[in-house]
Amino acid sequence: MTATREFQPPQRRARRWPYFLVIVCAVLVGALVVGDRAAASYAEGTMAEEIQKEGFPAKPEVSIKGFPFLTQALSRHFGDVRLKARDLKEGPLTITSLDVRARDVRVDSGYRSGTLGSVEGTAFVSFGDLAGASDTPGLVLSSAGPTTVRAKMDLGVTDAEATATVVKEGDNIHVKGARVEGVPLDSLGAPLDFTVPVKGLPLGMAFQSLTVTSKGVTLRVTGSKVAFTDK
């Protein structure tokens, strides 16, 4: 008598379930990430529109750090917000670029008003923009050290190259020439000495120190308890 084998259903379909679940989870996670970033993008744009009214000539770039965004949005409290802007006109001086970090940021439900607990970062002034704020025509500046620059000037009959110091004096950048190849600048009738005010920075920021870099002068700027409102 022939033995009858027990029927065993195929296992292929059952084995597919783990893969299917992985795909579903990946899709859900991807959707959550996309939704989270979309909400963050909306908040960043709205905040940028209102922050622009606090002294920016154009809408700054606002980036809310941290993931997920939605958990921060529920509390309307953001620990790290970056702001970037370019070509800020401050009196005779143009701030080439501004890059700051705001911490302890609290906003209303519509992101149209709030308070930046503290702000710290850098304002960069290119050599071209710094020279443009002087009264010396044809002045060309380049780096010579952390607090010094080389200055080329047109003296009419010839060009002169001098070294000059760049220091912070109050709320001003002070550039003072020293010597031209061992000869005092004043003796040539071409004194290089000018002061550029740095006042009225956006968000009520003030500059604390400066450093001469390879392409210009970097100012360290700070602010605290800065409010922005829907004006």
Structure description:
By secondary structure, the protein is of the alpha+beta class. The chain has two domains: 31-121; 127-219, no CATH class. The protein is 23% helix and 45% strand. A six-stranded antiparallel beta sheet has the order 1-2-3-4-13-12. Strands 5-6-7-8-11 form a five-stranded antiparallel beta sheet. Strands 9-10 form a two-stranded antiparallel sheet. Strand 3 and strand 4 (114-126) form a beta hairpin. The longest helix has 40 residues, at 12-51. It is elongated, with a radius of gyration of 29 Å. The model has no long low-confidence stretch (mean pLDDT 79). It comes from Actinomadura macrotermitis. This is DUF2993 domain-containing protein. Pfam families: LmeA.
Total strands: 13
What is the helix/strand order?
Answer: HEHEEEHEEEEEEEEE
Q: Strand content of the residues, in percent? A: over 45%
Radius of gyration: 29 Å
- Helix fraction, binned, reads 10-25%
Q: Counting H and I runs of at least 4 residues, what is the number of helices?
A: 3
- Report the span from N to C terminus: 96 Å
Average pLDDT: 79
Query: Which term fits the overall shape?
Result: elongated
- Let me know the largest β-sheet: 6 strands, antiparallel
State the secondary-structure class.
alpha+beta
Unreliable stretches (pLDDT < 50, length at least 5) are none
Strand order of the largest sheet: 1-2-3-4-13-12
- How many structural domains does the protein architecture include? 2
